[in-house]
Design the sequence.
């Protein structure tokens, strides 16, 4: 049995039956059977209709889904409402993408040997998708992994995070209610990590979508069946550079949102902030004042801005990292106090050491570290110094500074005057180096879940 609890106060929400190896085998066999039956594949218009009905069903349960996210995942209710709205739009996005989801003509006749021929490509579903998800966006991440598979016609088996399974299970139930036969979309709630690995590495699985820790993701990637594709989404310690030309009246709010959204439990959460010495004191005064006004507490309340961490041990870890940084010379500008078993006061650290864990590793908690700099290229070098690289920000009114930083920051996306955590669901979303593999974002995932077949016709 799996006991699902509220992230904030650890009160029990539900007890769920877990599934064993025999259940996994039944699900894999069912998915394999429907995929091998080409005559039974759903036509694009049928898949579009299912996705449209699914979005309507989710819309009808918007408030319920948002509250469920807040309870099981600890995301503050206003942000959970935004997540639900994005998830609904993501389902529409997958359906819309099918209108232009097509192959292309391959030019022939470019040599004498290629005369009298016509060639074109079609897109075919790659096969069974195994989706292993994370806790921090328990509905929208599932949509990003499952809706593309439904759209392109891949059977999908999705394993939610053990801490936040309810959103996933309800979403899958709504998929079936919308008309998709069960073998095409199945949830899997294993009673151990070994079965999750067995799902990901089964030879019948053609595509792994993994969102979670780099250690687990890269380990699974190395064990995939030959020919299987994957997309891995991990995280990093996202950097933001604040130039002396930045408009401090306008940037504090987005920086605070980028650093403390969902208590920092976001793979592109702003963690390392490099501020030009000429404005560092003013910036710190404004930043600390705004952070101290953040309302921290029960995520189901409408005015909460920062909720809990997902588990008590995560709060323990973050508190330990803060303590380590201050003992090694960092200044605790504000915060750092434990408010409850899972809740920490939003924290700002000034000038942690280069070897402190808050500098070198993803903290995944409500903490930002601020560092001073004098030379832009030095700040860029420090921002680029880690083996992880995902999204980054530059805050500047000087366009030359902004573009120089955007050009030199090692990141898959650089935001100018927007926080590192900015994302829309149709844009490419990808980690570099240890931060990930492949590209997320609904249209991009749909492309990865298909393979092109070329058809060539010879005219007599």
Sequence:
């Amino acid at each position: 049995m799996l006991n699902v609890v509220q992230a904030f106060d650890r009160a029990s929400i539900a007890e769920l039956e877990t599934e064993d190896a025999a259940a996994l085998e039944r699900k894999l066999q069912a998915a394999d059977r429907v995929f091998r039956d080409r005559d039974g594949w759903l036509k694009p218009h049928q898949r579009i209709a299912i996705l449209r009905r699914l979005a309507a069903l989710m819309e009808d349960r918007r408030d319920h889904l948002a509250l469920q996210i807040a309870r099981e995942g600890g995301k503050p209710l206003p942000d959970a409402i935004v997540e639900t709205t994005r998830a609904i739009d993501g389902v529409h996005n997958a359906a819309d993408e099918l209108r232009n989801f097509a192959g292309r003509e391959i030019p022939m006749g470019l040599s004498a040997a290629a005369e009298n021929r016509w060639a074109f490509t079609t897109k075919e579903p790659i096969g069974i998708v195994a989706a292993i998800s994370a806790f921090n966006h328990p509905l929208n991440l599932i949509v990003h992994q499952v809706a593309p598979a439904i759209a392109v016609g891949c059977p999908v088996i999705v394993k939610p995070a053990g801490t936040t399974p309810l959103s996933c299970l309800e979403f899958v139930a709504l998929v079936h209610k919308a008309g998709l036969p069960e073998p095409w979309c199945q949830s899997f709630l294993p009673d151990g990590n070994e079965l999750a690995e067995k799902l990901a590495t089964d030879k019948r699985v053609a595509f792994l979508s993994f969102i979670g820790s780099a250690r687990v993701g890269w380990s699974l990637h190395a064990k995939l069946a030959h020919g299987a594709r994957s997309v891995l989404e991990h995280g990093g310690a996202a950097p933001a550079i604040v130039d002396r030309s930045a408009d401090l009246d306008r940037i504090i709010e987005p920086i605070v949102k980028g650093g403390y959204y969902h208590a920092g439990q976001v793979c592109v959460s702003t963690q390392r902030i490099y501020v030009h010495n000429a404005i560092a004191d003013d910036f710190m005064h404004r930043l600390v004042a705004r952070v101290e006004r953040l309302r921290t507490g029960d995520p189901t309340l409408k005015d909460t801005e920062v909720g809990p961490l997902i588990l008590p041990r995560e709060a323990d870890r973050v508190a330990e990292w803060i303590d380590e940084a201050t003992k090694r010379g960092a200044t605790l500008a504000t915060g750092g106090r434990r408010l409850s078993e899972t809740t920490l006061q939003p924290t700002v650290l000034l000038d942690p050491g280069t070897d402190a864990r808050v500098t070198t590793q993803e903290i995944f908690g409500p903490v930002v570290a601020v560092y001073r700099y004098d030379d832009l290229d030095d700040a860029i070098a420090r921002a680029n110094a880690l083996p992880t690289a995902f999204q980054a920000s530059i805050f500047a009114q000087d366009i030359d500074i902004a573009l120089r930083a955007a050009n030199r920051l090692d990141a898959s996306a650089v935001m100018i005057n927007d926080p590192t955590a900015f994302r829309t669901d149709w844009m490419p979303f990808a980690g570099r180096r240890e931060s990930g593999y492949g590209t997320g974002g609904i249209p991009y995932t749909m492309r990865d879940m298909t393979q092109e077949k070329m058809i060539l016709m010879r005219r007599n």
The radius of gyration is 23 Å. The chain has a mean pLDDT of 96. DSSP finds 15 helices and 20 strands in the chain.
